From TrEMBL:
The keyword Lipoprotein does not apply. This is FAD-dependent monooxygenase. GO terms for molecular function: monooxygenase activity. Belongs to the UbiH/COQ6 family. Residues 6-338 form the FAD-binding domain. InterPro entries: FAD-bd, FAD/NAD-bd_sf, Ubi_Hdrlase_CS, UbiH/COQ6, UbiH/COQ6_monooxygenase. Pathway: Cofactor biosynthesis; ubiquinone biosynthesis. Its cofactor is FAD. Keywords: FAD, Flavoprotein, Monooxygenase, Oxidoreductase. PANTHER family: UBIQUINONE BIOSYNTHESIS MONOOXYGENASE COQ6, MITOCHONDRIAL. PROSITE patterns: UBIH.
Length: 404
C-alpha cells in the first residue's frame, strides 16, 4: 500500500525542511524530496554563507523545538550600522534593552545540521534524499511525484521549495517577473583583530553593498565575521582571481579599519544576484514557498526570513482548514495563503530593489541626499522603530508560530 501523506514537499533545503518540521509539529505528514546529499550539504567548507535570522523567524524555530539545538551557534545582532561609504550621516539601529536583539546570525551549515537532525527522527517526515524527480502529477484528488528509482510518492498538496529555478513552478506554467542585477555577491569568512561588538555593518558603495555580519568567536578566541561583498558582474572574475593578500587589501580599504587587522577564514565563493517574483503562489493542489516564489537582493538579509514567513502562514492555513475537515489543498485555504503572503512578499521585494537602485546612483549630490535622509531617520525615533520592526519581522499580521 502506498505511503500517502498530506504534503509532497519538493526541495529539502532550509525553507523546505523547516516547513516539513513545522507541519509535523501540528500533526501534518509529508514526503520531502531533495536531489542533494545531506552529508555534502553539512560538510565543513561546503557553504561559507551565513544567514540573519529575524526575531519572528527565531520564534518559529523556537516554537517547533529547534531553539536548544541552534542557540549555542547563534550570534546576537545587537545593532545595525548603515552608512553611505563610511561618510558622515550613518544610521545606528539599536533596540531598547527590553526589546532584545535585532536577530541572530548563523552559518548556513549550523542551520542545516539542526534541521536535518530533527527531521531524521520525525516519523511524520518521510525524507527522500539524493532523489531525482522525473514526473510530477497534480490530479483531481491527489498529487504525486515519480522518482528516477521508479518509486511513486503520493500526497494531497504539492509544495515547491526548490529555490529560484524551481522546475515545479516551471512545470505549472506560473509566470515570473525577473531581472538580473548584473551583480555578484562574494562570500567569505573573516577573522579580525578587534571584536565586532555584535554590530552588523551595511556599507553602501555605488558598485553595491558591502556587508559585515557578526559571527561567534572561533574556538581559539579569534573574532569572526561573514563578508558579503557585492561587485559588478564584469569585475567579479578579476576580484575572485586576486591573491589572498591583494583581496584582503581591497576588503580592508572598504572597511576603513573598523575591525583592525583582518585575515581570511575559509575559501571565497560567489553567486549572481537577481530579482524574481511570481504572478501567483498557488495553483491547483500546489503552493510555492521561499525562493520558488520570490527572490530578492540580499541587501537587507531578508531572503530566508521571507521564506520562513511563507512557512508560518502556510502551516497556519493548513491547520485551520484541516481542523474543519477540509482537504489540505482546499481552494479557499490556498487562496487565503495567496492573499496573506502575496502582498507582504511583494512589498519586501519592492523595498529591497528600490534600496539597491537608490544606493547605486553614483555622484556627490545623490550621496548627499541619501545621507540627509539617513540623518532624518537617525533623529526620528518613530521611523527608527518602524525600520527595526521590519528588520525583526515583527510587523503586519504574524502567523501563530512566529509570535513570541
Amino acid at each position: 500500500m502506498a505511503d500517502k501523506r498530506d504534503l509532497l514537499i519538493l526541495g529539502g533545503g532550509l525553507v523546505g525542511m523547516t516547513l516539513a518540521l513545522a507541519a509535523a509539529r501540528k500533526g501534518i505528514s509529508s514526503h520531502v524530496i531533495d536531489r542533494a546529499d545531506p552529508a555534502e550539504l553539512t560538510a565543513e567548507g561546503f557553504d561559507g554563507r551565513a544567514s540573519a535570522i529575524s526575531t519572528a523567524s527565531w520564534n518559529l524555530f523556537s516554537n517547533i523545538g529547534l531553539d536548544s539545538a541552534l542557540e549555542p551557534f547563534g550570534c546576537p545582532i545587537a545593532s545595525i550600522a548603515v552608512t553611505d561609504g563610511m561618510k558622515p550621516g550613518r544610521i545606528d539601529f539599536q533596540p531598547e534593552a527590553h526589546e532584545g536583539s535585532l536577530g541572530l546570525m548563523f552559518t548556513n551549515r549550523s542551520l542545516r545540521l539542526a534541521l536535518f537532525e530533527a527531521a531524521k527522527d520525525e516519523p511524520l517526515i518521510s525524507w527522500h534524499a539524493r532523489a531525482e524527480v522525473i514526473k510530477r502529477e497534480r490530479l483531481e484528488f491527489e498529487v504525486a511525484a515519480t522518482l528516477a528509482s521508479g518509486e511513486r510518492l503520493e500526497a494531497k498538496l504539492m509544495v515547491a521549495a526548490e529555490g529560484r529555478n524551481s522546475p515545479t513552478r516551471e512545470d505549472a506554467g506560473i509566470s515570473v517577473a525577473k531581472w538580473d542585477y548584473r551583480h555578484r555577491a562574494i562570500i567569505v569568512g573573516l577573522t579580525h583583530e578587534k571584536p565586532h561588538g555584535n554590530v552588523a555593518w551595511e556599507i553602501f558603495y555605488p558598485a553595491g553593498p558591502f556587508a559585515l555580519l557578526p559571527l561567534l568567536d572561533a574556538p581559539d578566541g579569534k573574532h569572526r565575521s561573514a563578508l558579503v561583498w557585492t561587485v559588478n558582474e564584469k569585475d567579479a572574475a578579476g576580484v575572485l582571481a586576486l591573491s589572498d593578500r591583494a583581496f584582503l587589501a581591497e576588503v580592508d580599504k572598504r572597511m576603513h579599519g573598523v575591525f583592525g587587522a583582518i585575515a581570511l577564514d575559509g575559501p571565497r565563493s560567489s553567486y549572481p544576484l537577481g530579482f524574481h517574483h511570481t504572478a501567483k503562489i498557488t495553483e491547483h493542489r500546489l503552493a510555492l514557498v521561499g525562493d520558488a516564489a520570490h527572490g530578492i537582493h540580499p541587501i537587507a538579509g531578508q531572503g530566508l526570513n521571507l521564506g520562513l514567513r511563507d512557512v508560518g502562514a502556510l502551516v497556519e492555513v493548513l491547520v485551520e482548514g484541516m481542523r474543519l475537515g477540509l482537504d489540505p489543498a482546499d481552494a479557499q485555504s490556498l487562496t487565503r495563503y495567496e492573499r496573506w503572503r502575496g502582498l507582504d512578499s511583494f512589498m519586501v521585494a519592492f523595498a529591497t530593489d528600490g534600496l539597491t537602485r537608490l544606493f547605486g546612483i553614483p555622484g556627490r549630490l545623490p550621496s548627499a541626499i541619501r545621507r540627509f535622509g539617513m540623518g532624518v531617520v537617525q533623529r526620528t525615533p518613530v521611523l527608527k522603530h518602524w525600520f527595526m520592526d521590519e528588520a525583526r519581522g515583527m510587523s503586519g499580521t504574524l502567523p501563530e508560530l512566529m509570535r513570541g
